[in-house]
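Practice record 12: protein with S-adenosylmethionine.
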Amino acid sequence: MSSAAPVTLTDDELRGVSALLYRWTGMNFGENKRYFIERRVTERMARTGSDDARSYLGLAAANLAEREALINAFTINETYFYREEHQLAALSREMLPQIVQTRKPGDLVRILSLPCSTGEEAYSIAIWLLENWPLVDAYNIEIVGSDIDTHALGLAREGQYGTRALARLPATVAATYFEPEHGHRRKIIDDLRESVRFTAANVIDRPSMAGLGQFDVILCRNLLIYFDDHSRLLAAESLYESLNPGGFLCLGHSESMARISDRFAMVRLEDAIVYRRPE
Ligand SMILES: C[S@@+](CC[C@H](N)C(=O)[O-])C[C@H]1O[C@@H](n2cnc3c(N)ncnc32)[C@H](O)[C@@H]1O
C-alpha cells in the first residue's frame, strides 16, 4: 500500500468508484467507507501514474487489467484453515454420505469453495476429508476454489501460509500436510496442492459461474455479508443454478438465505444448518 496521503475524492468521484465496484463485484462501498476507498484509489493512481482521480476512474472503467487490479485492491480476504469447523464435520458426517447414496464407487463428487480467497477453505476441505471421511478414496472427489480476486487466487495456487492462517489446525495435521518454508511459514505438500484447482469466478455474473460447472456441495461463506439485498439475490440465483438437484449450500455463521430466496430448503443437520437445492 502506498504511504502517500490519500487523495480526497469529490462526492461525485466517490459515488463513481462505488458504482463501478458495485456493478463489477456486488459489494457495496458507500460514504461510510470513504477513507478505505480513498486509500485504495490513491494506491492505484500511484501504480498507474494517474494525476487525478477522474482520469484514473476513466482508465479503470476502460481497461480490463486495471479493472481487475482495482477489484483486487478492494476485496477483503480474511480467512484461515478449519474456519467454522462444524460445517466441515457436517460435510463428512451428513452431506457427503447423503450425496453418495445415489452414486457408485468411483463416481465424481464435486465441491466448490467460493469465495476461496487465498485457498485456506478449499485446502481445509481436502484435508478434512482425508482425515475424517472413510470413503474419501472410494469416490472421485474434485475440489475447486474460486474467487473474484485474481491476486488471492495466485497465492492460493502457491499454497504458502503463515502461523495465523494455520493456528486452528491440530499440530499432527499440520505436520502431515505441510512442509516448512522460510521463517515460520509452511507450504502445502505438492500432492495436496495439485489436487485442488483454483479458477476465477464472480458469483453475481452467471456466465462466469456457469463456466465452473455443477457441484454437489458449495461453501459460500463470508461473502453475502458484503452484499446488499439485490446482490444477495443475484448470488442466490447463481448458487442455485450451480448446484446439482439435491446439492448442499453452506453459508457463513452470520449469513442466511431466509430473506433472500425461497428456492432452497433449509436443512438442520446435527452439526450445522445448511441449504439444499430440492431434488
Ligand atoms: C472474507 S473472504 C471469505 C473467504 C472464505 N470463504 C472464508 O469464509 O474464510 C471474502 C472473499 O470474497 C471475495 N469476493 C468478493 N466479491 C466476490 C464476487 N462477486 N464473486 C466471488 N468472490 C467475491 C473476495 O475476493 C474475498 O476473497
